[in-house]
Amino acid sequence: MTAVAKLERFPGSQDILDAWFKGMGLDPAELVWEWANRNVVLTSEMAAEAGRYDISRTPYLREILTNLSPSSPVVTTILMKGSQIGASQAGLAFLLYMIAVGGGPCLVVCPTVGAAELYSKQRLEPLIQNCEATKEKLPSNKGAAGGNTILLKVFPGGILRLVGAGAVNPLKSMPAKVVVFEEPDEFEPDLEGQGNATKIVIRRIKTFGRRAKVFANCTPAMQSRSVIAPLYLSGDQREYRMPCPHGCGHMTVFNKELFRFEKGRPETAHMVCENVKCGLPIEEAITKTEMLAAGEWIPKVKDAKPGTPRSYYLPALYSPEGWESWADIARDVEAAEGNYEASKTLWNQTWGLPWQDTTDRPDHELLYQRASASPYAMREIPPWVLFLCAGIDVGQDHIEIGVWGYGRKGRRHLVEHVRIRGSKSDPETWDQAETFLQRRYVHPLGAVLQLRRSAADRGKWPEVVIPWVRKQDPEFIVAIRGSPKVDALILQQSFWREKTDDGRWTRDGGFITWVLGVGMLKLELYNYLALPAPREGEEMAPGYVSLPNDVTLDWCEQLVSEEYTTHKNKRTNKAVAVWQTVKGGRGEALDCANYARAMAEMVGWSHWSEADFVREEAALQAHADELKLEMTKLRTRRLAKGDLRPVTEEDLVSNIVRPASYVPPAAAEAILVPGVVAVREDAAPAGRSSAVALPKGLRTSMAMEGAVERPAEVGVAGKASQKVDFRGIMRKSGMGRSRAHDE
After folding, report:
1. CATH number of the structural domain 364-617
2. Please, where in the chain does CATH 3.30.420.240 lie?
3. Nearest alpha-carbon partner for 435 in 602, 595, 654, 627
């Protein structure tokens, strides 16, 4: 008693005694969700529904919040989820409960310090001040002196600290009784060789034994670096099961495998009972709310060992009525077909599953075999292609151009790929590239397609590429460079800086260039190259990459010339994901494919709605009808004059190119293709000359020495042209047969 009397003599001694007696007492009997129902008030800024917290709206969270209650023996609770299910509000309610009732040292771990500050200012602090039970313990705006700052909140009986997951020291500096991991899939995968933040922090709770609480709440991201997915698999993997409303007696679930809707009619979205003997439809508006109320969590891992974490999986399909509807999800499913970014978002945010990228390098020989079975040759347009884009890669002694066509559901087709030989510094080489970009291709509908957009790589030689691009139409050709970051956005605007006479760098010229997220584009391409070829009579899969049957094995090898790997950054000692070229490989085909794909993104292709595709198809058909009408008129005029020559698209449109096997209706001595710089020797049909008709004034990248002058004669579209014997040129210069995709 004497010791107690001495303690009471100094200020604050009673607080110490109160805290000591409280610590010796029993844990609060009230469960977190019971307390939240009475005390937590949500605002419209932080929740889909403002007002008092009501667990009956999200009954699947009742067990999770029970686990987080001090009276529960469960230590670790893992929630792998989709969006719009109320999990974030549940985590905040738990923190408010600890401030008002539970007490003890609490730690909230966010991906970065900046994310922790936003979490505190935009979500936690407004909720604290909106709740009477916590407001009196943590008055607002008291600052460091009052124990209430953005990242540190001191309250009677405890402390709450918010930290970022990017450094080891803050994670180790404080033992914690309660830990909340907010979006752990965004954490750094490895911190100074000690693993990610979850592994470091969980070691700090062991001193609290069974009284500790860990809550990891996350929408998963990439499978390769996911934190929540392995945590979920380490637990008992619980599913929220509900009695079938049709009385079959089965406890069914909501998941993507049981989700159904009629194509083009998202309003028909529904579930079916998991029981194959039942399989009847479950309508959202009729039975969803009642089913959620009657549900229970059932572990997939039976007889789990004591201490096994409780892990839960909850896709957005469980979202309460009035939040995200099944019709909304059906629209997202349709919009994601063939769209890489939208597919990842759907997989993560809706299905609540980690996205598995195909980072394995596709087999180029299998791609070549698949291409050989294609019904289309180079320069032949499939009927589903709606527009064309080109990518231009610049080398020391050549320029390579890849032309790609794009259609519905993310499908694409290689139209042609050429190499223009010549020094990058030679204006004539660029003249040939400019001529090539004026090529036009005949669509099966009868329309003639020209390139909509082109991108030239200015990465290695901006002093050569930038001046050339500046002379072009900015709505047609842009300068681009690739970003070294593997997760950079597909397309970001940038400005080209120039050095002034006084040595300053300025953007005053206003010349816009673009930075490409080539890492994401490569992941997208590799994922879609892995899709199986359609069988006869089958439709191509969304995102399918179609290749012509005369593409070369060398080109296929170039298309997959890089591999996705990781290495340790020497400066930070962190594992970094990178794309690196396979030893001895060349990547022009891959680069051109990515540049063209970025131009399709600039057109808006990946975000087109059904109305946009219908508009494109209607415009294509209208152009075809107009061209056919003009051809009919020309044919009528010719017949009136006794001219029996057939009418082709070349008679009305210049710079048309055809497949190598194409023979004009009026047989001529050679296949005449305007705008071609050079064609490989085996491009001409058997028995015909390999000579190529060139537009007047056009020169090839090879010296014209050895050219055979021939009398001018009528070429394509009735224009005079000059023929050049490339075999003679190549023999004299000592060159062998050119590559199959050389021009």
Report:
1. 3.30.420.240
2. 364-617
3. 654
Name the nearest CA neighbour of 406 among 685, 599, 124, 566: 599
For 245-379, strand residue ranges (E) read 251-252, 259-262, 265-272, 281-282, 296-299, 310-314
Query: Which pLDDT value is given to residue 580?
Result: 79
Q: How many CA atoms lie within 13 A of 499 on its CB side?
A: 4
CA 301 to chain centre: 33
Q: What is the pTM of this model?
A: 0.67
CATH 3.40.50.300 residue ranges of the chain are 23-242+300-329
Buried b (16+ CB within 10 A) or exposed e, 141-176: eeeeeebbebbebbbebbbbbbbbbbeeebbeeeeb
Mean pLDDT along residues 601-607: 91
Report phi then psi at 205, rounded to 5: -100, -5
In whole angstroms, give the CA distance from residue 623 to residue 628: 9
- The predicted-structure confidence for 82-135, as pLDDT tens digits, reads as follows 998 999 899 999 999 999 988 888 999 999 999 999 999 988 998 988 888 888
CB distance 611 to 501 below 8 Å = no
Closest to 726 measured CA to CA, from 670, 686, 667: 670
Class in CATH terms, 23-242+300-329 = alpha beta
User: How far is 135 from 141, CA to CA, in rounded Å?
Assistant: 11
Residue closest to 394 by CA, chosen among 348, 428, 429, 439: 429
Reduced DSSP (H G I as helix, E B as strand, rest coil) percent helix, strand, coil of the chain, to 5: 35, 20, 40
pLDDT in tens, 258-271: 999 998 899 999 99
**Which residues face 33 on adjacent strands?**
none
* DSSP annotation string for 655-670: SEE--TT---SS--SS
